[in-house]
Write a structure and sequence with these properties.
Elements (H helix, E strand, L loop, with lengths): L3 H13 L6 E2 L8 E3 L1 H9 L3 H11 L10 E3 L3 E4 L3 H13 L13 E5 L11 H19 L3 E5 L8 H12 L8 H17 L1 H16 L2 H25 L15 H13 L4 E3 L2 E4 L8 E4 L7 H14 L5 E7 L3 H14 L7 E7 L2 E2 L16 H9 L4 H13 L7 E2 L2 H4 L7 H20 L13 H10 L2 H11 L3 H20 L7 H24 L9
Parallel strand pairs: 5-6, 5-10, 10-11, 12-13
Antiparallel strand pairs: 1-2, 2-4, 3-4, 7-8, 8-9
Helix pairs in contact: 2-3, 4-17, 4-20, 5-13, 6-7, 6-8, 7-8, 10-11, 11-12, 16-19, 16-20, 17-19, 17-20, 18-19, 19-20
């Protein structure tokens, strides 16, 4: 559903030949939009701007959308949308099952790599961002009609399992009695022993070989460690209210059988070469090569990620690949994308994107950590927020604080500020939704009927309807550029405009068609807020 702003822009550009750079009017008396296109054209044509504006008004075909156009000041053109057009655009959202979100003409298979915790370790503060951001992308891209496949690339393979399995056997542990926190304590004990006991270190190395060779006992313990960890991960995902399930797990181990074939293929084709004993791929524009196999014969992250790219392109049939990780990993992913393209594993038509995010900081401006200086557990952040408010409100606070900033920037985790129901916060948006619902409930209790928006005489009503008409356009923008702060800003503007509308335009105290129209405007606002909050992974409560 094309927004009124984009429709106007297209009409004016057709007449002017250049982008009119439409801007919201600063005051109601100037209409709803203004353009300085006449001033820009006047400079090139050497004519008075007001004359150019007058000529343009004669050519711009917007009579079906706007009141007669006006020239203001030195040559600005003012556009005032006709009230019946505004009413129809807002009312259409109420009837539309997609709430104005256009469905893709050519739906894509989109794979999103996010969350990716490590087996036998609790999720820490860094996993908060990747999980929340990836979940938002999943929701937005699904809402726009694409087929989205999350891939939770858990760390379930590698040398650490040698020490974990040896420690388990030495202690005679029944892993079924452990939770994820207990598994992490096991990890810590094994790691300390690895540093201090050379014979244990030797046995751990041999156990890795046994794991890779498929030894039955070793594989059974490895699988139990994964199962314990999955229970812990799922508890956190449920608490966070994200969409990840076991079916989305595609850990490092799932690509292990592909690594040797990838290395052999790239070496035989001359794409990979041996350098200082390691098998590497040099790519133009990168300072260092991708290391497929180290000098000791071990496989690392580079080749695992190349194999994952190959699998996701060839087997999953992805049209777009999105990786959500710490911004510091950008160079790694840009390198493996380049290697996969050089190898022909992913076609030119497949879009690969790395979405990097900044750190979560404490109120002191330093990375959020425990008193010991280590990365804080994700559940600690959730607990901190829930000290102030109920869980749904705490999650709204956390998710909105995370998504409302540009992703690449660090942000401060301040539970008290984030959970406030005033200001630019998630709970404020929840409160706005609950307030709209309260008005509609009162109307229902009083037997007051309403259907569609018909009367928009007041500037506050018109401003609300105009904002509502932009919702689908904003969602489409986020689906394209993966910047959810734009949706957050839009929802905050909508909630703020609704507050002004309430103050200036009494709803239940008005009468007749005006009252019915204002109730429909409340209902549309409630629907858009609920849909938008849902795309952020935030619950829209009916009361607070």
């Amino acid at each position: 559903m094309q927004s009124l702003a984009s429709l106007l822009t297209a009409r004016v550009e057709a007449a002017a030949g250049v982008d009119p750079e439409m801007r919201p009017a600063t005051k109601p008396q100037f209409g709803h939009f203004q353009s300085n296109v006449a001033l820009r054209l006047a400079k090139a044509e050497g004519r008075p701007p007001r004359d150019v504006a007058a000529d343009l008004i004669g050519r711009i075909d917007v009579a079906d959308l706007c009141e007669p156009l006006e020239v203001a000041g030195p040559g600005f053109i003012n556009f005032r949308i006709r009230s019946e057009v505004l009413a129809r655009a807002a009312s259409d959202l109420l009837a539309d099952p997609h709430t104005g979100i256009d469905q893709a003409d050519a739906p894509q298979k989109i794979v999103i790599d996010y969350s990716s915790p490590n087996v036998a370790k609790q999720m820490h503060v860094g996993h908060l961002r990747t999980t929340i951001i990836g979940d938002c992308f999943n929701r937005v891209l699904t809402a726009t009609g694409h087929s989205v496949l999350p891939q939770n690339h858990i760390g379930d393979w590698g040398r650490q399992f040698g020490m974990l399995i040896e420690q388990t056997l030495d202690e005679g542990l029944d892993l079924s009695t452990l939770d994820l926190a207990g598994a992490e304590e096991l990890y810590k004990r094994a790691n300390e022993r690895l540093k201090a006991d050379e014979s244990f270190a030797d046995r751990a190395r041999n156990r890795v070989v046994a794991l890779q060779a498929g030894d039955e006992e070793t594989r059974a313990i490895w699988q139990r460690l994964i199962d314990v960890s999955k229970v812990g991960f799922n508890e956190t995902y449920h608490r966070l209210g994200v969409l990840l399930t076991d079916e989305h797990i595609a850990g490092e181990s799932s690509y292990n059988h592909l690594l040797e074939d990838v290395c052999t293929d790239l070496e035989q084709r001359g794409i990979a070469v041996v350098d200082d004993g390691a098998l590497v791929v040099f790519v133009d524009g990168f300072d260092a090569p991708a290391i497929l196999r180290n000098r000791h014969g071990g496989y690392g992250y580079d080749v695992t990620d190349v194999a994952a790219l190959k699998y996701r392109a060839e087997t999953l049939g992805a049209d777009r690949l999105i990786y959500v990780t710490d911004a510091r990993q950008r160079n790694h992913f840009e390198l493996v994308f380049a290697v996969a393209r050089k190898a022909g594993y992913i076609p030119d038509s497949l879009v690969t994107e790395h979405v990097g995010y900044g750190m979560v900081l404490g109120r002191d401006g330093r990375p959020f950590s425990t008193r010991e200086g280590t990365a804080a557990y994700l559940i600690d952040l959730l607990d901190a927020a829930e000290e102030h408010v109920t869980r749904p409100v705490a999650l709204a606070a956390i998710k909105y604080a995370d998504l409302s900033n540009q992703l690449q920037k660090d942000y401060v985790f301040d539970a008290e500020r984030m959970t406030a129901t005033t200001g630019d916060t998630g709970p404020y948006l929840q409160y706005a939704h609950a307030r709209a619902n309260q008005i509609l409930r009162r109307a229902e209790a009083d037997g007051i009927a309403w259907s569609t928006i018909t009367v928009l005489d007041e500037p506050a009503e018109q401003a609300q309807a105009l904002l509502l008409s932009r919702f689908g356009e904003i969602v489409a923008l986020v689906a394209e550029d993966l910047q959810p702060h734009k949706l957050c800003t839009y929802l905050f503007d909508l909630a703020t405009a609704m507050s002004s509308f309430y103050e200036q335009c009494p709803v239940l105290k008005s009468e007749g068609e005006v009252r019915a129209s204002r109730l429909a405007l409340c209902a549309t606002t409630k629907k858009v807020l609920a849909t938008g909050l849902g795309l952020l992974g935030i619950e829209a409560p009916d009361q607070m």
